[in-house]
Design a protein that fits this description.
The protein is built from 14 helices and 12 strands. It is α/β, with parallel strands linked by helices and about 375 residues long. The protein is globular and about 55 Å long. The model has no long low-confidence stretch (mean pLDDT about 95). Helix 6 links the parallel strand 5 and strand 6. A 5-stranded parallel beta sheet has the order 4-3-5-6-7, with helices on both faces. A 5-stranded parallel beta sheet has the order 9-8-10-11-12, sandwiched between helices. The relative contact order is 0.14. It binds 2-deoxy-2-amino glucitol-6-phosphate (AGP). The site of 2-deoxy-2-amino glucitol-6-phosphate has 16 residues, from helix 4.
């Protein structure tokens, strides 16, 4: 399919810019202020069934897997159901125990990724309940699932996913509030998250206004042969996704680690030629994250922080607006989409069609 680029030079740039509207769309018609909850029409899960879930397992590939990791922490945090994410292909081949009290969730932009579809089919064959968090309406995974949440990001043409990643995480936040409010999430917390979700489009708009500054930073880091991305807990999937995006479109080698793991090995890589991008939200882990910055600085590593306020240990800080702690990962990923974009642009890469990659991988 080909869609109008709407004055942008690439689909990726267009799709990054569309995020405020895209987030607006995924929220639309789903929030119930009277009960501080969220209604999801296609979920196909009644409250009694929702209360019986003992575990949530999220399956996806690539960027969708990273969105699923954030989704798992949102569900575990708000609904207090143990939740984790796993690459769909790994799951399929390790002969997993399929448990009737586990809710399985397949995540896919295209809804056609073979590894995810095959995992869904294997699960269904074993009698499991599988929901889809999918962008393309009527796609194979959406049809195969017992129910689910459409992500409503609109058509995404660039091979690397930006707006769909963001919308998928927002869709998971909606699902987490929905499940949470059936279980133990209080009215107050439900309301707090809903209000946070409503602030997202304007906050994304604000981040996008900083594009020129991010472009200038990209010019400074584009000479790196390799980059380190670090984050902690909620920030770790943000680091993983930002490093994947950089690899995919700029071809710069990048590693992502939990900040807490640095001293268990990757710290050996730190030197001036290996810059670090650090996710440093203003939350209960701020001091821990600052300590990691100090460790890097002590090894003369260059640091670019994404934070809610200036970080003295960092050489540069990209400041993003603060939301509720749970929703911060959504906003912290956005400047890093622009960083990857402008790095790739500075290096003259074919941004919408990176080498060796396809938009949807429908073969094994
Ligand atoms: C493009 O290469 C993406 N970054 C890729 O990782 C993608 O997320 C993955 O192939 C899964 O695609 P899906 O979301 O359409 O299932």
């Amino acid at each position: 399919a080909s869609y109008d680029m709407g004055g942008h030079d690439t689909y990726m740039h267009k799709e990054i810019s569309e995020q405020p509207d895209a987030v607006d769309r995924v929220l639309r018609g789903r929030i119930d202020d009277r009960f501080s909850t969220v209604h999801l029409g296609g979920l196909n899960l009644d409250p009694r069934e929702a209360r019986g879930i003992r575990r949530v397992k999220i399956l996806g590939c690539g960027t969708s897997y990273h969105a699923g990791m954030i989704g798992a922490s949102l569900i575990e945090g708000m609904a207090r159901i143990p939740a984790d994410a796993e690459p769909a292909s790994e799951f399929r081949y390790r002969n997993p125990v399929v448990d009737p009290d586990t809710l399985y969730i397949a995540v896919s932009q295209s809804g056609e990724t073979y590894d995810v579809l095959a995992a869904v089919q294997e699960l269904k064959r074993k009698g499991a309940r599988v929901l889809g968090v999918v962008n393309v309406v009527g796609s194979a995974i959406a049809r195969e699932a017992d129910g689910g949440v459409y992500v409503h990001a609109g058509p995404e043409v660039c091979v690397v996913s930006t707006k769909c990643f963001t919308n998928t995480v927002v869709a998971f936040a909606l699902l987490a509030v929905h499940l949470g409010r059936i279980r133990d999430l209080s009215v107050t917390d439900g309301k707090r998250i809903i209000e946070g979700l409503r602030r997202l489009p304007a906050q994304i708009e604000e981040i996008l206004k900083g594009e020129e500054d991010i472009k200038a930073l990209a010019a400074q880091y584009a000479d790196a042969k390799s980059m380190m991305f670090i984050g902690r807990v909620r920030g770790y999937p943000v680091a993983l996704e930002a490093s994947l995006k950089l690899k995919e479109i700029s071809y710069i080698h990048a590693e992502a680690y939990p900040a807490s793991e640095l001293k268990h090995g990757p710290l050996a890589l730190i030197e001036p030629a290996m810059p670090t991008v650090a996710i440093v939200p203003d939350d209960d882990l701020l001091e821990k994250n600052r300590a990691a910055l100090e460790e890097i600085k002590a090894r003369s590593g260059r640091i670019l922080a994404v934070a809610h306020r200036e970080q003295e240990k960092a050489d540069h800080t990209i400041i993003v607006p603060k939301n509720e702690d749970e929703l911060d990962p959504i906003l912290m990923g956005i400047p890093l989409q622009l960083l990857a974009y402008h790095t790739a642009l500075a290096l003259g890469r074919d941004i919408d069609k990176p080498r060796n990659l396809a938009k949807s991988v429908t073969v094994e």
